[in-house]
């Protein structure tokens, strides 16, 4: 087990500086344009692929860094550049993790490379879990996968919503119900290969923020995928379902639900790190502005009312990063989240990003309210962090349940 450290080693610092350079030179200058266009920034993703940032190798290297600091450092730098573009770059990674975590070696080897493509032919992947009637309440999912034994195929029907890269992805990972009696324990994940008939993009959403990231419905109409597309394989699924049925019979329903929540815990610090990146970006703009903007014959930071806000902003950002780093270190080293530390990090970092970006607008005054300055966009972008991968309310629920052991509603 790696010791917890707050100091990046030389290699990590090199990666951080390299990512920072890409974020400053390539992502940040393109941010306003793609925010206005509300389209996937393909040229920026291609550029990221060329230098190796958009690749499975890079993502895996950060993911398996034993200190746990690889992913948070990468996310913070890329999202410091711009949240919408960064999500377009890392969105595939979120789907790939679904396959890395649940797939067989063969499935990983077959599908993950097709999620990324290569620098000359970049591809994307989408992870489709949320539905119109199943957001926070994942157990209400209706998309159904039925096994056709004669053909060794799964037939999937349903509508997914809010899917990042949904409909434009080469590979979709779709979560569906295989046993409706088991709630979220009756779900399984499937690969939907490129160009599979029956999968189509529904509505593309026009959003408040992260507008460079494509978000859309995905409609599954009698989508047939080979048996080999069930992540983890049929044997493992049958064993898992049998165990869940046993536990449900023994009255362990609530425990089952909590166990499902615990799995989400591990990915939440990564979202916290994205929020830290956006918050830090807005804070830096505000600090610089406060030191150069003069009113009443002196820089506005000369006023305690402004200076204290900046002190508060920086303190909250550093505290958020520490929570994120702690949770990331725990996750990679298999330390159980006995106080829902993953949720804590996401809750605190995402609320911090919303607060800090709003304070940045205030410090920039009228300029902060315009699209001439980036803090207005950063504030719009920051609102997503308290919503996706579990809203702030759901994080509080998870923390309270974990601390109390009670089924708090
Ligand atoms: C831009 C964007 C990208 C996304 N990307 C993806 C993706 O790639 N794949 C994917 O599967 N999903 C994705 N999502 C979906 C996201 O995870 C959901 O929006 C989120 O889980 C919330 O679900 P909901 O929108 O249905 O809100 P609801 O669950 O309807 O919640 C509405 C409000 O009620 C509150 N609430 C609900 N239940 C409780 C409770 N028990 N206690 C207290 N408050 C409660 C919530 O906190 C929230 O404030 C994305 C969403 C957005 C906006």
From TrEMBL:
Gene3D superfamilies referenced in this protein's UniProt entry, alphabetically: Acyl-CoA dehydrogenase/oxidase, N-terminal domain, Butyryl-CoA Dehydrogenase, subunit A, domain 2, Butyryl-CoA Dehydrogenase, subunit A, domain 3
Task: Extract the Pfam families matched here.
Answer: Acyl-CoA_dh_1, Acyl-CoA_dh_M, Acyl-CoA_dh_N
**Which is one GO molecular function term here?**
flavin adenine dinucleotide binding
Where in this chain does the record put each Acyl-CoA dehydrogenase/oxidase C-terminal domain? 259-403
> What SUPFAM superfamilies would the database entry show?
Acyl-CoA dehydrogenase C-terminal domain-like (SSF47203), Acyl-CoA dehydrogenase NM domain-like (SSF56645)
This protein's cofactor list reads: FAD
Highest taxon, organism lineage = Bacteria
Question: What are the record keywords, sorted?
Answer: FAD, Flavoprotein, Oxidoreductase
Q: Which InterPro entries match?
A: Acyl-CoA_DH_CS, Acyl-CoA_Oxase/DH_mid-dom, Acyl-CoA_Oxase/DH_mid-dom_sf, AcylCo_DH-like_C, AcylCo_DH/oxidase_C, AcylCoA_DH/ox_N, AcylCoA_DH/ox_N_sf, AcylCoA_DH/oxidase_NM_dom_sf
Q: Where is the Acyl-CoA oxidase/dehydrogenase middle domain?
A: 126-223
Q: Which residues form the Acyl-CoA dehydrogenase/oxidase N-terminal domain?
A: 9-115
Does the keyword Flavoprotein belong to this entry?
Answer: yes
The UniProt family comment states: Belongs to the acyl-CoA dehydrogenase family.
UniProt protein name: Acyl-CoA dehydrogenase
Report the source organism. Answer: Streptomyces regalis
Q: Which lineage ranks, top first, belong to the organism behind this chain?
A: Bacteria, Bacillati, Actinomycetota, Actinomycetes, Kitasatosporales
